[in-house]
Every structure is written in C-alpha cells, then in structure tokens.
C-alpha cells in the first residue's frame, strides 16, 4: 500500500522504532527495496532526490506507484531535499505522498515562509511535508551535498518552527553528514541536542546522513524520538562494488545477468538497516 509519511511514521514513537528512507536511483534499487520490505514485512520509504528525479523522469513513478499500491506492505514515496516550490509541485504531480522542502541554508524567517508555503500546498492534497532546521555535513562522497561546518539545530527554534509551519516531520542537525565518511573522519553526534528537541516536539524527527554512522548512536537516536533515518551511500556503495567486481572479471552485457547479485548486495544493506532501526516486521501495525 502507498501511504503518506504522516501515516507511516505515526506508530514509530509509541512502538520505539524508525523507518528507513532509502534513496533510489533506478528500477534495480526499487526492486531491492520493495523485495526486501515484502520479504521481511517491513514498512519503508522510497526516497528520491531532485537530481534522481531528473534522471529517472516523471513517467518512472507510474511504475513505482503501481508496485507499491499493490503491495501488502506500507510504503511512502518521498521527495528528498526539495529546494523549491517547483520541486514540491513536480513531485506531487507525479504521485509522491510526501515531500521535503529544504530551506535550511536560508535565513530563519525565509525558511519558515518557504516551508509554510510548501505545507499549505501539500496538505491541501493529503501529502505530508518534512522540513529541515540546521545543516547537514558533507563528506564529499555524495551528490546530496551538505556544508563543511554543521549548524546544529536549536531546540527552542525547532519548537517555534514546527508551530509556525505545521510540518509533519522535522530533519534535525546533530552532527551527521551525507555520504561515506573518509578514513579518519568520525562523526560527532550531539545526542543531548536530540534529546532536548525530542522533549519539546511530539512529531517524529528525521536523521539525514544515516550511512556509516556508529550503530550504537543510530540505535540510541531511535530511542530519543527519531522516526525516519535516511540511507543512500551505504546501499549504493554495496551495489556498485558488486557491479565493479562482476564487470572486472566478466565480459557480460545482459542486465539480467549482471544485476541480480548487485541487487542482493543492496538488499543485504537494507535488511541490516531495517533490523538496526527496529522496523523489521512492523508492517503488522498498519
């Protein structure tokens, strides 16, 4: 089934789990996500960055909507890091059930105004909205970008932001970064900030840059109110490592011969993350 983000995340705090949002780049990643979710009876979020949307094209999402609507497992089709109202409208027109409007690099009042406009448009047609306050770091290994110096989310400002915009979920900055951390680079997650934000807000919180962070900190974040965790690089790294391995020793050219093993490699990462987030088998709650 295909549901809104608000509906998908509704039971996460009460039951103490988070749902993985996996960035897709083509139909192979859709297969990996949907097949693993169905095999383990686990809710999941299909996340699409605007650059991925450009690559895939609008018509691709007819296929995504069809396979998810027919599934017994709940899915959300989500726009990741939409930077403009145009991005939001395009996603809604393509049948997305959730959108993110990312005004985190704007001055605070401009972020509030942009997010409030996105909420007004999306809520009118039953689409959920994720906002962002604070900035996510970057490792230089992801197309999703980020900043070199993280601006941590201010808990009091987060409370004001949610009250004034009406967002359904909020991405917070506690020290994570997009991409795979280079050797020697360690994230410094500020769990006390997350704890204070969670104490002020009742909506599910979102952790971006979930790849390559210590499992213990990710698991702790779930206990502190994080209901959605974004995964992209870990899954794609495993997939393309397997592609390189196969093409390095074989001269095959048929996709049906080359891609099954990479799909399985991606599924292994997805399976591991679902278990880490505590979402495995939670489709029974819907």
UniProtKB/TrEMBL annotation:
Zn(2+) 1 binds at residues 81, 178, 208. Pfam families: F_bP_aldolase. The active site is at residue 80. InterPro entries: Aldolase_TIM (IPR013785), Class_II_FBP_aldolase (IPR050246), FBA_II (IPR000771). Zn(2+) 2 binds at residues 102, 132. Keywords: Metal-binding, Zinc. One of its GO terms (biological process) is carbohydrate metabolic process. GO terms for molecular function: aldehyde-lyase activity; zinc ion binding. The keyword Metal-binding applies. Binds 2 Zn(2+) ions per subunit. One is catalytic and the other provides a structural contribution. Its cofactor is Zn(2+). NCBIfam families: cbbA, PRK08185.1. This is Ketose-bisphosphate aldolase. It comes from Superficieibacter electus.
């Amino acid at each position: 089934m295909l549901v809104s983000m608000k509906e998908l995340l509704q039971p996460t705090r009460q039951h103490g789990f988070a749902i993985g949002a996996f960035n897709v780049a083509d139909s192979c990643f859709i297969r990996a996500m949907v097949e693993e979710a169905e095999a383990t009876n686990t809710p999941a979020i299909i996340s699409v960055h605007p650059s991925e949307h450009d690559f895939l094209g609008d018509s691709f999402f007819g296929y995504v909507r069809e396979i998810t609507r027919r599934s017994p497992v709940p899915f959300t089709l989500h726009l990741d890091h939409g930077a403009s109202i145009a991005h939001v409208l395009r996603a809604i027109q393509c049948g997305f059930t959730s959108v993110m409007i990312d005004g985190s690099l704007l001055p605070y009042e401009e972020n509030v105004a942009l997010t409030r406009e996105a909420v007004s448009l999306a809520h009118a047609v039953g689409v959920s909205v994720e906002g962002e306050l604070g900035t996510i770091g970057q490792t230089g290994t992801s197309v999703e970008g980020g900043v070199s110096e993280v601006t941590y989310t201010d808990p009091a400002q987060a409370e004001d932001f949610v009250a004034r915009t009406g967002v359904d979920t909020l991405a917070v900055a506690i020290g994570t970064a997009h991409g795979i951390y280079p050797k020697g680079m360690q994230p410094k997650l500020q769990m006390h900030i997350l704890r204070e934000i969670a104490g002020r807000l009742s909506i599910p919180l979102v952790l971006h840059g979930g790849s390559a962070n210590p499992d213990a900190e990710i698991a702790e974040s779930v206990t502190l109110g994080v209901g959605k965790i974004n995964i992209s690089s870990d899954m794609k790294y495993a997939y393309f490592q397997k592609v390189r391995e196969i093409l390095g020793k074989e001269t095959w050219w048929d996709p049906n011969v080359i891609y099954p093993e990479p799909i399985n490699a991606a599924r292994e990462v997805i399976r591991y993350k679902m278990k880490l987030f505590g979402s495995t088998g939670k489709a029974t709650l819907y």
